[in-house]
Every structure is written in C-alpha cells, then in structure tokens.
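Standup notes
- DV: blocked on the single-chain target, sequence here:
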Amino acid sequence: MSAERVVVGMSGGVDSSVAALLLERAGHEVIGLFMNNWEDDADCPAREDLVAAAAAADAIGIELEAVNFAAEYKERVFASFLAEYAAGRTPNPDVLCNAEIKFKAFLDHALRLGAAKIATGHYAQLRERGGRIELLRGADGAKDQSYFLHRLTREQLARVLFPVGQLKKSEVRRIAREAGLPNHARKDSTGICFIGERPFREFLNRYLPKVPGPIVNERGELVGEHIGLAFYTIGQRKGIGIGGRKNGSGDAWYVAAKDLAAKSLTVVQGHDHPLLMRRSLDALDASWVGGEAPPAHTVHTAKTRYRQADAACTLANVRDGEIAVEFDSPQWAVTPGQSVVLYDREVCLGGGVIR
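- DV (later): unblocked, structure below
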C-alpha cells in the first residue's frame, strides 16, 4: 500500500495506539483523533482516556486532535438506547455506535481533514475478493470484534484499515511494550462509556421511570415484585430479588420473559429451563456487509450475543429487511434487542436486531 494520510481513532487503549504505531512505521502520514462521545457527567472516564491517548501519540510522534461527537452520539445512539430499554428490549449500543459514530461521523470528519483512510484498533480483518470487500473475523478468536461491525457498509469498509486485526492481543501488548508506549499495560476498557463505573441499574434509573409489577413463575403464580421491566434482561440471574424463595427446586432464578401489557416478569429456575431455550428467532432491520442478503434456506453459523460460540443455523427466510433464523440446537437466552450476526466460516455476512 502506498503512503497515505490516515486518521486513527485513538481511545487511549493499547489496541488503537498500536494501530497508529504500525501505520506510522509503514510510512503513512498518521493523525490521531480522540472522540469524546459523552459529556453529561463526570462518571465517564473520557478525561483519563484523552490523557492516555495524548501520551501514546506523543510517544509515537504523531499529532492528536480531540473532537466532540457528544451531540451526534446522544441523537443517534443514546436516544435509541433509551427507547429500546423503555420498550422492554436490551439493545447493544456498541453496534449502533460503530455504524453511526465511529464509521460515519468520525469518517466524515477524517475526510474533511484530507484523509484517504481511517483506522481503528478493532480486532477484525478485511479481504477483497471478486471486486468486493469482505469483513473477516480477527485473527485472535478471543478478541474478534466483527460482531460489533456487522452493520458497516461496503462504502465504509473501503475507507477503513484494521492494523491489529491480524495480531493476537499478546502480540499487540508486546509491540507496545517494546516501543515504549506508556499505555502498553493499560487495562482493557469494558462496558459502555456513558455508564462508567456505576452500577447499570443506578444509571438507567436516572433516565427511565420505575414502573413496578408482578414477578411470576412459568405457571403464572406470583413470586415477587419487580421495579420495572426496563431494568431486567432475558437470562439475568443476579438482582432479581427473589433469591431466597424456593419453587420446588433449589436452583437459581433466571428472567425468561417480559409481558409489557401485563407489566409482568416471568422467571424460571435452572439455567437450562426450557423457557430459556430457543430453536428459532426473527430479526428486523437486517444489514448485510456485502450489500445483498444471502439467499434464503442457506446454511451458516450465527451468534445471538458477542460472548458466544458460533451455532449452526439456517437462514430460513429473508424479506424486506426481516430475517428468520433456525438453529440446529436450542440457543440459550435469545434476547430481543440484541443482534443476531451470521457468518460463512471466517466471513461476517451481516445480521439484524432480534425481535
């Protein structure tokens, strides 16, 4: 690849810092860009992240620009996040943030800076085949982030580089350490920036009202009271508030279903209870990396959440942005609002939002 101006999204973490380092070593004109996506309060560690990103940029010898995308984030990501929770679903803001902020608002800003490409520290790979760009899993299976990138378009991917996608995390840390980057041992960030170190329920309570209702078992018998359906997710075990109650079994309770009309929360005992298992699902708002949906009745693998092994499945139906997926074996805690993402071996095809 010939030398180009590349703007790298630098978060303060080791992955994006090494991405910038590798591009600088390859002879590109590299500019670091720190995105501030949240400014409502002091709990989000944005200030600490900016300091870490600036120190890494200084060690690499590149410029760092800080850009505020808080307004765009609130409008395009956070508003949807709250609406989904209010509707009883469990959204994945990282998927939407990538599509709307990191690879849209950030990309547009980088192009205004005269960039030919943007780069991030995501663990994913790209391959051109038959005139098309394919999104591949990262080489480090434990860190692969293609799940979060499945809504990106061909046009976006044509402008993107993933410099650490071919590396293992241990190699990334080694490169950073040997280069003297000050964040080489910095702990990976987890969770959602705008929540920070607070308990999730405490954060959500600031924006959504508590609407109590009954907790019932699979037979419809009252076993407790919940504080509001928005504060629970399918498969949740901790924080239900009925841990001491027994129902013919000493097994832990799990959230199995929500009924918005009745304001009721259904719970069951046992991790593998039948009500927690699903052989099929429907998904809306489907998006395909290649631009076209795979044909119906084709065999693939899929994930219904990020930290999950691939499961064999059939794409049973494709129609007007909606898909139906049937699994070879039952899947645990399939959750409305999360994304189902389909793969053809190492190639990420796309996916949709579970209904």
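- Follow-up: The chain has three domains: 5-178, 209-271, 277-354.
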